[in-house]
């Protein structure tokens, strides 16, 4: 008689929707959350008050400002993995070293880099209301950005499509559709 084989338990997965301010992280993550039903966190919720104040006043964050914030996100991801839960997070994750830190979370960490023409991003920031991040910080975000590399685990998706198209492409290319 054939032995019964237990299916392999699926490892928790973290989708990190990344990119510069205004690239559409919150918009796309919300669609992914609706489709996948995974727990969701916005990186901005993890910033200490001082970081938000700094950005509101038009000053870019430094590495020192960002490390505790990234560590808090990594801990949140790991807490979820510990109870078998997958997550979706938005996080600019501009530098590879920042992504290295997030990759240390337990579970599989996949990045979705929302990538596109800075002029389109600037335009979208201009028309957005009620957000603390000034458009004047976009050049610094772009200068700091190290695009997701092919060996990092994840995909780069063009933002020059509708949010629904971006979400569909993401889920299809990651095999999550
Ligand atoms: N694919 C898209 N097409 C048209 N408009 C979009 C698209 N994606 C996002 N937007 C709009 O662009 C603006 C910026 O998007 P969003 O706030 O989601 O970006 P973000 O990356 O989360 O920004 P931040 O990091 O500053 O919080 C919003 O007004 C949003 O409605
Ligand atoms: O790394 C950074 O400089 C910050 O995370 C910013 O990108 C903002 O937090 C965010 O994108 C604005 O909402």
From TrEMBL:
Its EC number is 2.7.1.12. Coiled coil: none annotated. Keywords: ATP-binding, Gluconate utilization, Kinase, Nucleotide-binding, Transferase. Pathway: Carbohydrate acid metabolism. It is an enzyme of class 2 (transferase). It catalyses: D-gluconate + ATP = 6-phospho-D-gluconate + ADP + H(+). GO terms for biological process: D-gluconate metabolic process. It holds the Pfam family AAA_33. GO terms for molecular function: ATP binding; gluconokinase activity. InterPro entries: P-loop_NTPase (IPR027417), Therm_gnt_kin (IPR006001). GO terms for cellular component: cytoplasm. Belongs to the gluconokinase GntK/GntV family. This is Gluconokinase.
């Amino acid at each position: 008689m054939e032995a019964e084989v237990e299916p392999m338990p699926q490892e928790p997965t973290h989708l990190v929707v990344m990119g510069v301010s205004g690239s559409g992280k919150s918009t796309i993550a919300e669609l992914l959350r609706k489709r996948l039903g995974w727990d969701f966190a916005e990186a901005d919720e993890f910033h200490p008050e001082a970081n938000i104040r700094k950005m509101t006043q038009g000053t870019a964050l430094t590495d020192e400002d960002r490390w505790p914030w990234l560590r808090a996100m990594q801990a949140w991801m790991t807490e979820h993995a510990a109870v078998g839960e997958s997550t979706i997070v938005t996080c600019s994750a501009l530098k590879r070293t920042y992504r290295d830190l997030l990759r240390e979370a337990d579970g599989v960490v996949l990045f979705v880099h929302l990538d596109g023409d800075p002029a389109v991003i600037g335009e979208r920031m201009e028309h957005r209301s009620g957000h603390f991040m000034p458009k004047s910080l976009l050049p610094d975000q772009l200068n700091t950005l190290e695009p997701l590399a092919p060996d990092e685990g994840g995909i780069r998706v063009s933002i020059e499509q509708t949010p629904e198209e971006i979400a569909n492409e993401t889920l299809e290319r990651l095999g999550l559709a």
